[in-house]
Amino acid sequence: MIPLYVLLTSLENDDERSKLLYIYEHYRFLMYRIAYDIIGSQQDTEDVVQDAFLAILKHIKSISDDPAEGKRVRNWACLITRNLAINFANRAKRHPENEMEIEAAEVLALEHPQKIEDVMNIVDLGNLIDTLPSNHKDILYLVVLYDHDFKTISDIMKVSEKTARKRFDRAREALRRLLGEKGNIIDEL
Amino acid sequence: MNFEINKCTLIAALELSLDKSIDVYTKEFFEPHEFSPAFKRRMKKILWDADHPVIAYTKKIAKRVAVILVLLLTLLTTTVMSVDALRERFFKFIEEKFPEFSIISYVSESGAPLPTFEEKYPQYIPEGMGLIESDHEGQLFLYFQDSQGNDLLYRQLPIASGKTGINTEGVELEPIKIKGYEGYYFSNIGYYSIIWDDGVYQYYVSSNLSKDVLLLVANSL
User: Fold this and answer.
1) Are the Cβ atoms of B46 and A145 closer than 8 angstroms?
2) Which of A58, A123, B50, B145 gets the most CB atoms within 10 Å of its CB?
3) What is the pTM of this model?
4) pLDDT digits (tens, 9 = 90+) for A148-178
5) Cβ neighbours of A123 in B, within 8 Å
6) Least CB-CB distance to B53: which of A11, A46, A117?
7) A residues 48-87 near B, CB within 8 Å?
């Protein structure tokens, strides 16, 4: 693990530091709530939120957006928090999304997708994507929307790079199946 | 089907999906969580360090060096002083045996019971000083600073908890009394410091302001 002071000295400009402060001031309650819904205990949730801020601190360079504009930075911070919370809960076996249930959810998503033929607009397509298991969606968000490499994702999700790659491959495959005859489009992602 | 699924629409749909999964937490009112003091302290430190990366880096390095020096001193000497004898002996010990060395060290009597830590805060802090950093784990550490860059450090540490090191290289120790307890005043590299103990806790106050300010702070405990 990279020592905190190395991370801190890597924050080269005020912009990155003010981003961190903005996230703390505006989203800490939201981050807490998301993590608490998964973990269910105040002490553990606060620990996870603090870990999320350390992860944010470590990777804040990869986010170029102004946090005050749009939801992109908010969603990113919440995504990191959610993944750390799920990870924590999985370790403690308190979250339904343990490995067995993830597998079951994947099978369910693959066997019973909404029909691509019903998709008439972006909202419908978003709804279709919603049917994917959350760990598949989250890795798609991180790779496709935030352009994170697998090293960064393994650090954020606290899984090995190999697992992150495998999860992404499975997420792509699940999405490909969801999209039916349009599935080849994901090769462009 | 008129709707075309391409890279752009897929990315837009992914954004929409992520938005929804987060928005669901913002649509209903929820009472903001009252974060625990421990969380606030830890976050304050992270945010403060992020805002002062060079100082944070220097402090981390300095702490490591100090720990190494204290461990070195401990290894170099077999002398173990009892808490009772501490006040009379510890400065003499440094001056006579290690005149070239710059560390004052407390070493507790083996097996001495650890007292329940009772934090003692100075009631006087110079005007304009704000608390920048604090630590409550095994010690009370307070670091204040004002807008001119003047700073004040206060530290309270149980003597029986182990060892601590303070740089006194090349300085003269001036005996003083703080609330009836013997202590020493010294100045070094533009900083004025007072160190004393009451037999249970060691206290250390240091600032670049003046000796008079230090005495006011120390006597306000």
Assistant:
1) no
2) B50
3) 0.54
4) 999 999 988 888 899 999 999 999 998 888 8
5) 16
6) A11
7) 49-50, 53-54, 57, 71, 74-75, 78-79
